[in-house]
Design goal:
8-stranded mixed beta sheet, 5-stranded mixed beta sheet, 17 strands
């Protein structure tokens, strides 16, 4: 199957497709209208230049079928509709009477869009009205914070501490993007990030801890101490303060789960731990199940503390 021509034909205009037809079928179609043609190419017919005038509108083509000889053929496509028509012609081999159907795999869902860092960077103020909101049925949220950041500012001064914190933000964003996530916002020294899947969020948490540990080796007197929490569930996406943000109980719980973590610890909720791929991803680490009472949550919540490698 070969493409023989493609053109955008404006209303009232005529475009000529000059084609060398081969045995088989010339099939023409439009992606934005019902116009289409099917011409059988019969090598037994006498050759010679052939010129065929075809009228296109949004519902049909006239004529839309016929038999032609192999060799040079010119289709004069006249657009009689009131909008532009995109039209293409394919050469189908003998025995094939129509192009194979196209199957498109899902690629960009709303959730994927909202967890794509490039989209958030380029369209950070894209409006989802606060009185409406966009419901996201399942999102993995990761919160981080730095332990002892106040003492760090006091020890090395505001400018030095601020520079370190900014470098830490850059490293966490790099890790987040690598694992199919996006930074939602920074709050002081803390980060809120969203991920397509819980397993992505957990892998990101492990890499964040490793990244900051490597960062600290280069400056042992200015170590940053990271604490991480991960939870999943439904949330509402809205635009607030010119930024796309998430709200709801899942966000509250994710922040509270992070609050359970101490130095270099990762805490994940039961919902995260039970998600596909998470247990396998944590197989090499010490995982300690616990039960926590979180402020604002009625029932105790099963959580898991992720320590170092075993």
């Amino acid at each position: 199957m070969l493409s023989r021509g493609l053109a955008y034909i404006e209303p009232g205009e005529t475009t000529a497709f000059e084609i060398i037809a081969e045995a088989g079928i010339l099939h023409g179609s439009s992606s934005d209208s019902d116009a289409g043609i099917t011409f059988i190419v019969d090598p037994a017919l006498p050759t010679g230049e052939q010129r065929i005038a075809i009228r296109l509108d949004l519902e049909s083509s006239t004529p839309d079928a016929g038999t032609i000889a192999a060799g040079k053929v010119i289709f004069e496509m006249s657009n009689v509709a009131d909008k532009r028509i995109e039209f293409g012609i394919l050469q189908l081999p003998p025995g094939v009477d129509r192009p194979p159907p196209l199957h498109f795999a899902p690629f960009l869902s709303g959730k994927r869009l909202l967890t794509t860092q490039t989209f958030r960077d380029l369209f950070r103020s894209e409006v989802i009205r606060s009185h409406e909101g966009l419901g996201v049925t399942d999102i993995a949220l990761l919160f981080t914070d730095l332990k002892g950041s106040t003492a760090l500012y006091d020890r090395i001064g505001d400018l030095n501490a601020f520079a370190l914190v900014q470098q830490h933000f850059e490293r966490l964003q790099d890790v987040t993007v690598r694992h199919n996530g996006a930074i939602i916002k920074t709050i002081g020294d803390a980060v809120m990030a969203a991920f397509l899947r819980p397993a992505d969020a957990v892998r990101a948490a492990l890499d964040m801890r490793s990244e900051i540990a490597s960062f600290n080796k280069r400056q042992p007197d200015k170590a940053l101490i990271l604490k991480i929490g991960v939870h999943r569930g439904a949330a509402i996406a809205v635009t607030l303060n010119e930024r796309l943000d998430y709200f709801g109980q899942t966000v509250n719980i994710a922040a509270r789960v992070q609050g359970l973590a101490d130095a270099d610890e990762i805490f994940v909720s039961q919902d995260v731990y039970d998600a596909t791929g998470v247990r396998d991803g944590l197989a090499a680490f010490a995982v300690d199940p616990r039960t926590a009472h979180l402020r604002g949550v009625r029932q105790e919540l099963p959580v898991f503390r992720v320590g170092g490698a075993v």
